[in-house]
Amino acid sequence: MKQKPLKLFWIVLPLACWTLALFIQQGLEERPPQPPTLPDRSEASDTIFVDELELTLLDFATQTEDERPYVLPADALARSLSSRTRIRERDIKNKPKNSPDIKQDKGYYFIDANQQKFAASKLGLDFKHHFQNCFLVGYKPFDVSEIWMPHEVLTMRLKYQLDEDNFAGFQEVWLTSYEAFQRGRGDCEDHAIALADWLIEMGEDARVVTGTHKGGGHAWVVLIREKGTFLLESTDKKLRRLFSSYPLAKLAKDYVPETMFNREFYWINSKPEETSDYTGSHWFKNGRITY
User: Fold this and answer.
1) How far apart are CA 180 and CA 99, in angstroms?
2) Residue 242: band (very low, low, confident or very high) from pLDDT cuts 50, 70, 90
3) How many helices (H) and strands (E) does the chain have?
4) In a 3-state reduction of DSSP, which class is residue 35?
5) Residue 223's pLDDT band (cuts 50, 70, 90)
6) What single DSSP character describes residue 125?
7) Which of 187, 203, 204, 279 is the most buried (most CB within 10 A)?
């Protein structure tokens, strides 16, 4: 008679474990997708969030470009690059990190009263939205003596990897120049940001360009110098030991620039068919980041 409780225990235990497993499985199925576990991105003074960008909608007829006042329109309107739907700036700020559609989030561009784009934001490594300029954080890994060296170092340092492979199915996650170099992998915009920021630290007029290359979305770098504008394909793994081996931008016909940015400004190409000139009057300097 003393053995009956023990036998009953071994009968009830598997049943209890099976029931518990069902509850756990049901809970996991109902849970919305979570961002992958990644290091927290520090909110340093050079990280600017959506409500901190300043841009003007005033008439600038009597002011020079550098004198323009910049004021963010109240509750700015943005358009989703994923769904093409409109969204208010406050809704972007308040969007939870575990939102069911966060993996499909490709960013937003902001439009003024004239329906003109003036800024764009992307998900960062902290899964918050940051303006594209803010991914250029003023980072150079070390000093170099020649202008072609940053490209050579990054060619060897960075491995090309799509965001959906790098971040467990997320369509678009941008890295700062520091994060890209430290992680050692990323896609085209991560390569371009790391290269442009290093060149800017060297005193060069380098800009990250977004647009298309042979019909596909892409990002690259242009370097504007007295001798001309050079196009630097940051994902090109060919080593170039002379800067003269980099092509002039006007000869790179397969690249169609749409926007470009540095640490401070955001430019819009008003003539997408104009693919060879990165300094002409068809480039509108619409947004300015202030720190």
Assistant:
1) 25
2) low
3) 6, 13
4) coil
5) very high
6) T
7) 187
pLDDT of the residue at 285? 87
Interior angle at CA 281, CA 62 and CA 215, nearest 5: 140
Amino acid at 161: Q
pLDDT in tens, 250-270: 888 899 999 999 999 999 999
d(CA 121, CA 230): 26
Q: Does residue 39 fall inside a structural domain?
A: no
Residues 69, 60: Cα–Cα separation, whole Å: 9
Helix (H, G, I), strand (E, B) or coil at 220: strand
Question: Where in the sequence is the domain holding 194, given as residue range(s)?
Answer: 50-73+121-288
From CA 209, how far away is CA 196, in angstroms rounded?
A: 10
Residue 248 maps to which CATH number?
3.10.620
Domain count, the chain: 2
Max mean pLDDT range (43-52, 53-62, 155-164, 281-290): 155-164
Q: Residue type for 76, please? A: A
pTM comes to 0.74
Q: Are residues 21 and 65 in the same domain?
A: no
Asked if 198 contacts 141 with a C-beta cutoff of 8 angstroms, the reply is yes
Residue in this structure with the two tokens 């400004």, named with its chain if needed: 265
Question: What is d(CA 233, CA 189) in angstroms, rounded to the nearest whole number?
Answer: 11
Same domain, 27 and 125: no
With tokens 């290091």, the residue in question is 39
For residue 127, being part of any structural domain is answered with yes
CA-to-CA distance for 193 and 189, rounded, in angstroms? 6
Bridge partners of residue 288, in order along the sequence: 54, 265
Residues 129 and 138: their CA atoms lie apart, in Å, by 19
